[in-house]
Amino acid sequence: MPAPKRREATQSHGQSSRVYVPILREIVRRNYAPGTQRIEFSKQDVEAVASDLGLKLGNAADVVYRMRSRTRLPDDILDLGFTILRGIGRGKYALEVGGEALVHLPEHEIFDHNDQTPLPVRRLLPENLAELDEQGLLTLVGYCKLLDHFTGLTVYRLRSHVRKSVPGVGQAELDEIDVGIALRDDDVPVVFPIEAKAADEVINKVQIATAVAYCETYFAGHEIRPIVVKLTYDGVLHFLEFRATTSLPGLRIVSSHGYRLNLSPRQRELIRETRASLDRSAVEQPRLDLGEESASADGEGDAE
Question: pTM of this prediction?
Answer without folding.
Answer: 0.71
